[in-house]
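lol ok so funny story. i was supposed to be doing the assay writeup but got distracted and ended up predicting the structure for this chain instead. priorities right. anyway since i did it might as well share w the group, maybe its usefull for someone
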Amino acid sequence: MRLDHTHDAAAKSWVESANQPECAFPIQNLPFSVFRRAGTSEAFRGGVALGDYVIDLKAIAALGDLSESAAQAVLACTAPTLNAFLALGPHAWRALRHALFAWFSKGEAQAHIDELEGCLVPQANAEYALPVQIGDYTDFYTSIDHARNIVKLLRPDGSISPNFQWMPIAYHGRVSSIGLSGQPVRRPVGQRVAAGKREPELGPCARLDYELELGIFIGVGNEQGARIPVESAEAHVFGLCLLNDWSARDIQSWESAPLGPFLAKNFATTISPWIVTMDALAPFRTAWVRPEGDPQPLEYLALQETDDRAFDIQLEVAIETADARRSGRCASRVSRTSFRHQYWSIAQMVAHHTIGGCNLRPGDLLGSGTISGPTSSEAGALIELSRAGESPVELAGGETRAFLEDGDVVVMRGWCERPGFVSIGFGENCGEIIPAKWE
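and the output, tada:
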């Protein structure tokens, strides 16, 4: 993923909202989604964010005048999901990115502006769907800071499991309950053991939590039985989105032995509508570093520490309570961290996923696992921030939270910034907690 003209900080768009300093979607970003005009029965189709607008790729396809690769790519984006586009691979993804950059850059397509303006839909008038048909979902556990924080809470004298430093740990999640930012999240019901009790009871989750993650969308897959080498693994990744792995901690602590989470995780996972491509993230790569003295990965996971396989993606979580909304207060930021702290890289996750012969397919989703940094303010979940409820987090207006309450809205944001380059954003991933269905 090398830098090219599409990363030029001097480049501007004739769509003026894309040139504003705080814009998440400048011409250097161009993330993908699936959308339609709100309140219509139009078919969903591919779109690309630029400033305050969505570039309607079905309208772009109707204009023609594209290279063969770009034309094939944009045609695939006219479908209700982006799976066929993802399957085309990096050459097609890049051809379409370059074509859109040329058409919407200031001074590049003056003769076509009238036509291109007809391809723009205000984001305020758009509604979104899941960008791909997700066949399989795997959630990883790759933050050593998160792992250590959890161990300290559960077993103060313990240490992380010995396999954590040897391989990216993961479990397979539930696809049917993956939804989009903005949907309500119903408090789940399940078995839990109340404090001081020995036997479980059935009831609504009392310790509802979020997990700050990134979603990793697979583009080109692999045949069953074939392995994806770590060196080329990123060529199989189309891009990233924000992901919230909602978690019922009291249900999780009771059910996780011996096979791991089940009802604690399968009730809801939400993602942001925009997929930021690996090409757009190229300027924000940083060296992947293994701490001195830690075991070196086995050969199939080995990376040089000078390899720029980590990404400096800034992430934050805020909580807006029902009282804050009534009072007109802003959401309270509770943590901020960076994806660069992750112990295992995206390439290593993909390589490990396929080492046993598992076949990945276009549109498969990987969760990065909770993203926590080395300081207490960089924790990616409330269970860490509140020390399992013992030290509730202070919010604006004198409110506190040990775990999430009904009416709370969790807001996740992500962006990249680096001197010499234009900042790009992921948008938001929001979800409001609604009461459990419980008789």
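The chain is about 20% helix and 25% strand. The first strand starts at residue 32 and ends at 37.
back to the writeup now i swear
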